[in-house]
Design the sequence.
């Protein structure tokens, strides 16, 4: 899907997030893999996901405020849920991995299918940010 130039980097990062969520689902039932995957999730959070969330919250979500508040709120709630689950993972709760992967996948699909098109509709009518 062709994206507005301001979203290309974020969409590419979404691909990496989907790959991570798939990797989580594959190892979810293997206790031996969970420790390694927990480490991978926490590294991805620090190096990729947090900067990604910050960019969305700084550059994308404010533009939606007032017109698409429900979608904006969902994105923020998803970010918060992922951070809470990551905190549990960091505390040694490998059972949070499966839910983390499921929410991450659903969140990315929501952004690509719903949130980003709404953002694009607003910036094309207002002009490029």
Sequence:
């Amino acid at each position: 899907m062709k994206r507005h130039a301001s979203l290309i980097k974020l969409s590419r990062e979404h691909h990496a997030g989907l790959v991570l969520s798939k990797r989580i689902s594959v190892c979810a039932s293997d206790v031996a893999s969970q420790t390694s995957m927990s480490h991978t999730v926490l590294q991805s959070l620090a190096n990729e996901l947090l900067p990604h969330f910050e960019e969305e919250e700084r550059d994308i979500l404010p533009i939606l405020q007032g017109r698409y508040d429900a979608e904006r709120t969902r994105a923020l709630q998803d970010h918060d849920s992922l951070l809470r689950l990551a905190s549990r993972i960091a505390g040694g709760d490998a059972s949070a991995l499966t839910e983390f992967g499921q929410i991450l996948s659903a969140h990315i699909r929501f952004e690509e299918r719903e949130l980003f098109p709404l953002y694009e509709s607003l910036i094309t009518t207002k002009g490029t940010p």
